[in-house]
C-alpha cells in the first residue's frame, strides 16, 4: 500500500486532501501539521505533529513513516505578513522546503510541492509553465526560492502552481475570497473590489485532485493546477452575487492603487492548464460549479 504524507493537513487544501484520500483504499495517508488534527474524521487517519522548519523533527517523522510521496501544502501564505515578517516567511517557505527536499531525496520519496502564481510579475495572463518568473513581493520571491530548492535537492519532484484557492472546511483557520465576498454581500456591506487584477480562481477540491493525480502518476516537472475561468476580481465577486442571488447595490469598482497593502500583487495572472489536462487528466469544475459545491457544504455544516 502506497504511503502518502501530507504537510499542512489542518489547512484548507490539507483537509480536502484528507477527504479525497479517505476514498482511496489503496493509499495510506499520514497527515501532519502544527497542533492537534482538526479534520472531523481524525479517528480514521494517522496524524503526526510536525514542525517543518525543525530538521530533527522532519528526519524523525520521515524515518518513522518512510512515505512514498510527500504532498507539501504547508506554507506562510499571508502575502502582507510575509512582506513585514521576512524571518518567518524565510523559515517556512524557504528553509523548511530545503529540509523536506533533503528528506525526500534521502528516503527516496517523490515530492509534490505547492507553489503560486505570485512568482510572476503579472504583466499578462493567463500564462503557461514556461513563463519566466519575476516576483513582485517577498512572498512570491520566497516561493520561487522554494521551487528552486525542490528542483535542486528533491530528486523526484513535481511542482504544482495554483491561483486564488477557495472553499470551505469544518474548522477554518483563514477565510478566502468567496466566503468573504458572500458574507459581506449577505450583510449588505459596502464593498469596493478591484477590477484591474485578473485570476483563474481554484476550487480547493480541484487542487486536491491535481495533487492526487500528480502523486498517483508519480508526475515529474512543473504543472499549472487552477480553475479554468479567467476573470477580474470584480467579476469574481459579481458572479458570486449573481450565483447566490445577493443584492449588489453595495458593490463598487476600484483599482489596485487605492489598496493600502504592504505587498505588491501581480495585476494579471491566471493559468493555462493544458499540460495538466494532457499529462495528468486534470479537469477542474467551472467557477459556478465550484460555488454550488461550496453552497452545498455550507448548508450541510449549518444543519
Task: Itemize the secondary structure elements and their pairings.
Elements: E1 2-7, H1 12-21, E2 27-33, E3 46-49, H2 55-65, E4 69-72, H3 79-84, H4 86-107, E5 110-116, H5 138-153, E6 157-162, E7 165-166, H6 177-186, E8 191-194, E9 198-199, E10 202-203, H7 204-216, E11 221-224, E12 231-232, H8 233-243, E13 251-254, H9 274-280, H10 287-301
Parallel strand pairs: 1-2, 1-4, 2-3, 4-5, 5-6, 6-11, 7-10, 8-13
Antiparallel strand pairs: 9-12
Helical stretch count? 10
In the CATH hierarchy, what is the architecture at level 2?
3-Layer(aba) Sandwich
Structural class: alpha/beta
CATH class: Alpha Beta
**N- to C-terminal separation?**
36 Å
Strand order of the largest sheet: 3-2-1-4-5-6-11
* Fourth-tier CATH superfamily name: NAD(P)-binding Rossmann-like Domain
Binned, the helix content reads 25-40%
| CATH topology description | Rossmann fold
Summarize the biggest pleated sheet: 7 strands, parallel
- Overall shape: it is globular
H and E order: EHEEHEHHEHEEHEEEHEEHEHH
Mean pLDDT: 96
Overall domain count = 1
Using the CA coordinates, give the radius of gyration: 19 Å
Strand content: 15-25%
